[in-house]
């Protein structure tokens, strides 16, 4: 929370500005090895978010159900981050979330692809290859533009 009259730099430089439930999950995983057994989505079963201290603490009462806020697929990297948070255990930083089988991926999307969470665009490659045998350059470009604008293409640069 901030006052809209505050300067942007003072808001961003605020020491607690970088502390979110997610970043504090990283810190909890660093401090408590037993915490690393849970995914972010399942973390509230054993840990509770303390609003006053902005820290995760061990749950004293019965378990709770966690949820991630809805993220539309058009939100790109945020959407892919949310997908990964349902699969990755015990991350201590954003790089851990993007590391799949020992390989650090440049984006959350490529990490999702490496985990097999996304399609491989095979049907789009096949359609373009088939069209290349009969379509003119103009038709081929129009087909590609239509695919990019109206379809869920996982790797548009490769396509």
How would you describe the overall organization of this protein?
The protein has 7 helices and 4 strands; from the N terminus they run ααββααββααα. It has 2 domains: 8-114, no CATH class; 120-159, no CATH class. It has helices at residues 8-12, 21-31, 77-85, 94-98, 108-114, 122-131, 137-150; strands at 47-50, 55-58, 99-100, 103-104. By secondary structure, the chain is mainly α. The chain is elongated. The model has no long low-confidence stretch (mean pLDDT 84). β1 and β2 (55-58) form a beta hairpin. α3 packs across α5. The strands form 2 sheets. It has a two-stranded antiparallel ribbon. It has a two-stranded antiparallel sheet with strand order 3-4. The chain is 38% helix and 8% strand.
Task: Write a concise keyword list for the protein shown above.
159 residues, mainly alpha, two-stranded antiparallel ribbon, 8% strand
Q: What strand order characterises the main sheet?
A: 1-2
Report the principal-axis shape.
elongated
DSSP E strands, number:
4
Return the domain count.
Answer: 2
Number of contiguous helices: 7
> For the report, how would you describe the main beta sheet?
2 strands, antiparallel
Beta-strand percent range = 5-15%
Helix content, binned percent: 25-40%
Given the helix and strand composition, which structural class is it? mainly alpha
Q: Uncertain runs with pLDDT below 50, 5 residues or more?
A: none
What is the radius of gyration computed over CA atoms, rounded to a whole number of angstroms?
21 Å
From N to C, what is the helix and strand string? HHEEHHEEHHH
Mean pLDDT: 84
End-to-end gap? 42 Å
């Amino acid at each position: 929370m901030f006052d809209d009259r505050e300067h942007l730099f003072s808001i961003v430089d605020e020491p607690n500005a970088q502390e979110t439930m997610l970043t504090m999950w990283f810190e909890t995983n660093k401090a408590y090895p037993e915490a690393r057994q849970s995914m972010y989505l399942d973390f509230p079963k054993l840990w509770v978010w303390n609003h006053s201290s902005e820290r995760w603490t061990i749950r004293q009462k019965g378990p709770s159900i966690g949820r991630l806020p809805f993220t539309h697929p058009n939100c790109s990297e945020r959407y892919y981050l949310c997908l990964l948070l349902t699969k990755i255990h015990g991350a201590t930083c954003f790089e851990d979330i993007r590391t799949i089988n020992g390989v650090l991926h440049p984006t959350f999307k490529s990490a999702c692809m490496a985990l097999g969470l996304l399609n491989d665009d095979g049907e789009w490659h096949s359609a373009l290859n088939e069209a290349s045998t009969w379509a003119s350059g103009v038709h081929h470009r129009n087909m590609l533009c239509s695919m990019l604008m109206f379809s869920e293409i996982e790797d548009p640069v490769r396509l």
